[in-house]
Amino acid sequence: MTGPDINIPERAVLHILVLDFDTLECEETSASGFSSRGCRVLTNAHKELGKTIGLRLAGFDQMIKGRVREILDSEILVSFEFANSTIVEKRRERRRKVAIPALVSGRGSQDGVRCEIVDASQSGCRLASRRLEKLPKNIQLQIPGLDMPVTGEIVWRSPEFAGVKLIWQFSNGQEFNQKRLRPPDLPEKTGMQEKRDASGFGVRRKSAPN
């Protein structure tokens, strides 16, 4: 199936965030070679064929669902999956133990509870906190490294733990048709070693020593 038109210069190198749904870890890196089908991502992680990841492109409002289709030395080739905007995985999930601080609140609320995500999978996670009774059923989670909230639903809770169903919504590709993106402050070149003090997500980097 042919994807939407991609209004990104062919030689552009964009700042992106890559979200690992298995661990909820977020990596800031760069991507190039954009087409209607996918792109190349600079990374030494996610080296698993068929793995589903989330791509957050600077300048766009929604996360893109992607799947690893080829593994190279320091890159992966990722296919975009626009047809279904909600993640649905049929494979058996494995819960992974993690220790991720998260600010959890009601959807659209600014008042949150500081929790720790203690295990995670693609479809859900478990929260640990002694203030879980303050949270409503429908929640949003702010996790480190990701500049947008993750929507969830509490399906069970005890005095110190809560089980959360994660509800992933993805871009259907319409943004690519409607928006012409020029990468901020990045030259159009094929090399992916360009470093800046701050990314398109407002993430500050440590300055290199003189």
From TrEMBL:
Domain of life: Bacteria
Region (Disordered), start-end ranges: 178-210
Domain PilZ: 89-166
Gene3D superfamilies reported for this sequence: predicted glycosyltransferase like domains
Pfam families found in the cross-reference section: PilZ
One Gene Ontology term of the molecular function aspect: cyclic-di-GMP binding
Positions with biased composition (Basic and acidic residues): 182-198
Protein name: PilZ domain-containing protein
